[in-house]
# Entry
Amino acid sequence: MELVSIILPYYKKKSYVKSTINSILSQTYQNFEILIIDDELTSESKKILNEINMLDKRISILKNTRNIGAGYSRNRGIQKSKGKYIAFCDCDDVWKSSKLENQLKFMRNKNIYISHTSYDLIDKNNKYLKKRSAPAELKFEDLLKSCDIGLSTVIIDRKVLKNIDKPFAPLKTKEDYVLWLKLSAMGFKILGIKKSLTKWRKLNQSLSSSITQKIFDGYRVYRTYLKMNVIKSLYRLLILSFNFLLKR
# Structure
């Protein structure tokens, strides 16, 4: 069984992180390492993560020297990881027990390097809200219109990242969107699993809930990273924003 490296940046998620880690430790596929990157850097985060570190010898805690954000924390985790496959999970999301097993089997059967899954939205009290279905396949033109990939559902074969120095962009939101666009433009096939294998927690206070921040970062995706002109960037942002509102 191939080793899976699971990357989790930590920042002010004390109410949920233990539930997240327990959902990973309960996987039916057990050959993994967990790398938690402390980006909060407080005495409280040190205490919480030290307790989690004691749960299993496969857990490693990496402490940033300063706050660098979720994207660059993931980059650091990738650099320190050893697995053939890299999976991502935010510290307030939850994996269903068969996620790794089903997803790795799917990737081997389809002979692909990147996959994601459908996921359930839950609130702060674990109440089910709705399901978001993963498209069977996402091509570059599809991704330009809408980012329909849940980060905590993704598994990547690390070989696709070998020529990418910093996979995640230094954005407050949509740092993963840049990576999916980049990999798709490089010709990698991105397939989705219809079965919901992850629970994504919708929290109003999270950065991902800030519409203003999403608009700002969405523009930067097109203008800065895809090198589109101002008019085209604004046009693409309008379409992205419209599709985002349809999903709310």
Observations:
- The chain has a mean pLDDT of 95.
- The first strand starts at residue 4 and ends at 10.
